[in-house]
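Inverse folding, one chain.
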C-alpha cells in the first residue's frame, strides 16, 4: 500500500429526501411519491443529527438529495414542514449547522441559478456527480436532469461563483471505455477554465437486488484500477482523486493506482445511498496501514483564496490552522 497520506473528512450524512425527479436504473435510494417508503426528513430529526455530529467533532454536514420533484404532492410536503421550497429548508438546516460549528457541503442535484447562489453563501464546498458524458444511456432513460450538458452547465456555474466543487464519474452504468475517458476529459476542461474542482470521485457501481440494474455485472477491481490510473493521467495534478472506502475490498489497490482521498467517514450516520456497504472505522483503516489525515470540506488552496461561502468564514478561520491551510 502507498505510504502517502490519505485524506478524509469527519462528517454527518443528512439524506434530506429520497424523492427525486430522476429515476435512475441503478439507484436504490429513490422512492416514488406516495409509495409509503418516501420521506422528507423532519427538521427536528435533521437538527438532532447535526447536533450529535457537532458533539462528536464533525466538521462537515453533507446534505444529500436528488433533483426536487415537480409533483405538487412534493411541494405540499415541503410546505407542511414550514418552508416554501426544498432549498429554503436546506438553507435553514445549513444555518443551524453553522451555528453549531459544522460546515455544510451540499449535493443537491441541478439547482436553478438563484438557488445555487443562495446555498453557495452557506457552504464550504458543494458537489454534483457528472457521472458520465454518455448520452441516451438506458440507465438514464427516466432521468431528465442526468443530461450531461445540463450537469456540465451547473458545474460551470459553480465555477463562476468560485465555489470549491466535488464531482466525479460513476463506473459501470452502461458507458464505454471511451465514454469514461471523455467524461474525465470534460471534468479536466472545466477545471482548467474555472479552477474550482477540488476533488473527483471515481465510484464503482454496486448492484442491489431491488434495483432495475440488479443483474448488471459491476466493474471489476482491475477495471477500477485502470479507470483511476486514467483519471490521474487526464486530470490536472491539483485535483484530488477520491475512492469511496465502503464500496470495495480493494481500497489499497485503488490508492496505489492514484486515489488519495476517501471522502467522508461518519461516526454518526450510515451511507444511506449504499446502506449495505458500511463505512470502515478509522481504527480499521489505520490497522491496514493507511496514514490518515483529516481535512476540511474545503481544500487548502481555496481557503487561501477565500473561495467559500461567506457565512462559513468564521468556521474556516477557526479550523483552518492545520497542515497546508495557511499561506
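Residues assigned per position:
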Amino acid at each position: 500500500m502507498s505510504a502517502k497520506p490519505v485524506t478524509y473528512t469527519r462528517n454527518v450524512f443528512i439524506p434530506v429526501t429520497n424523492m427525486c425527479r430522476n429515476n435512475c436504473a441503478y439507484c436504490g435510494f429513490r422512492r416514488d411519491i406516495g409509495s409509503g417508503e418516501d420521506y422528507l426528513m423532519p427538521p427536528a430529526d435533521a437538527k438532532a443529527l447535526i447536533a450529535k455530529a457537532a458533539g462528536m467533532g464533525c466538521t462537515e454536514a453533507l446534505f444529500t438529495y436528488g433533483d426536487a420533484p415537480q409533483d405538487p404532492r412534493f411541494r405540499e410536503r415541503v410546505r407542511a414542514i414550514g418552508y416554501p421550497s426544498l432549498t429554503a429548508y436546506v438553507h435553514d438546516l445549513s444555518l443551524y449547522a453553522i451555528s453549531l460549528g459544522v460546515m455544510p457541503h451540499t449535493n443537491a442535484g441541478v439547482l436553478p441559478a438563484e438557488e445555487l447562489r443562495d446555498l453557495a453563501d452557506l457552504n464550504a464546498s458543494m458537489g454534483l456527480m457528472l457521472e458520465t458524458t454518455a448520452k441516451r444511456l438506458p440507465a438514464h432513460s427516466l432521468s431528465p436532469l442526468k443530461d450531461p450538458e445540463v450537469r456540465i452547465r451547473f458545474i460551470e456555474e459553480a465555477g463562476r461563483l468560485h465555489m470549491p466543487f466535488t464531482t466525479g464519474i460513476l463506473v459501470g452504468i452502461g458507458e464505454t471505455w471511451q465514454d469514461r475517458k471523455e467524461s474525465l476529459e470534460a471534468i479536466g476542461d472545466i477545471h482548467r477554465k474555472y479552477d474550482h474542482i477540488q476533488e473527483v470521485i471515481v465510484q464503482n457501481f454496486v448492484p442491489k437486488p431491488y434495483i432495475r440494474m440488479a443483474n448488471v455485472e459491476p466493474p471489476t477491481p482491475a477495471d477500477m484500477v485502470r479507470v483511476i490510473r486514467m483519471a490521474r493521467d487526464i486530470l490536472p495534478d491539483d485535483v484530488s482523486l477520491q475512492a469511496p472506502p465502503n464500496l470495495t475490498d480493494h481500497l489499497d489497490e485503488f490508492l496505489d493506482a492514484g486515489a488519495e482521498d476517501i471522502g467522508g467517514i461518519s461516526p454518526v450516520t450510515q451511507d444511506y445511498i449504499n446502506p449495505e456497504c458500511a463505512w470502515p472505522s478509522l481504527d480499521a483503516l489505520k490497522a491496514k496501514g493507511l496514514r490518515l489525515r483529516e481535512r476540511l470540506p474545503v481544500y487548502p488552496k481555496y481557503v487561501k483564496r477565500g473561495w467559500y461561502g461567506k457565512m462559513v468564514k468564521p468556521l474556516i478561520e477557526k479550523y483552518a490552522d492545520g497542515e497546508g491551510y495557511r499561506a
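The chain is about 35% helix and 15% strand. The longest strand covers residues 5-15.
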